[in-house]
Amino acid sequence: MSAAVTSMTTSELLALPDDGTERELIRGNLREREMTRRNRVHAATESLIVYELQSWLQNQTACEACVLSGEAGAILAQNPDTTVGIDVAVFAREVLERQSGESSLVVGLPLLAVEILSPHDKHEDIHEKILEYLRVGVPLVWEVDPDFKTVRVFRPQHDPIMFNRSQHIDGGDVLLEFNVSVAKFFPSWN
Asked: Nearest to residue 113, comparing CAs of 138, 135, 92?
């Protein structure tokens, strides 16, 4: 992603033409890149992660949350604005309930942000986004790599931890009682 404009607001971001360019704001700085071309592996991985999170949520009584996917737009910080699309996000229900019906973006932090690497993603771009998630206070971030079938888990003030398909991943103190085999995040035909 290249920085094109500084000190941009979310309103200015949303006013830009829809020309096939993927855009996000990181601390008021516009990040632009060609629209990511996702493939069937990315789509299947996203679906499987959503399925596992939804299955976990259905069995929860203590966690009032909702799973959003498909580049869920979120305003994570304001003045300067950080506005991003998240592949898969778990938001507390109270965050979603306080949203105005007019905005398509969620204002607030997810409990979990999941970034799934696409074939053309650059690690530097994803790394910057993960650091921003942690900086604004997202308590749990997963970087999912469908090619290597791994998940790197990031938490504020902790070293990242890598999980492979032979291991189980849990939700720590954020997604209580969530525990699943990493292999379930990836399609069996890949």
From this structure: 138
